[in-house]
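Reopening this one. Same input as before:
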Amino acid sequence: MSQPVIAIENLAFAWKGGPEVLNVPAFRMEAGERVFLRGPSGSGKSTMLGLIAGVLAPQHGSIRV
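Same output, byte for byte:
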């Protein structure tokens, strides 16, 4: 089995002083896969991308790219 290009486990994130905005138990993305992030405004799409890019740090869990 190949290594995923993105692997997320037990990810949790909240903005300072706010409620948890992301809670991702597990996510894997394999080479060649495509993903479409969809959700209403304020649902955490940009936050998720910031976490994957390393611009933000999760409070809990791990992200491997």
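So the earlier flakiness isn't reproducible anymore. For the record, The helical segments are 45-53.
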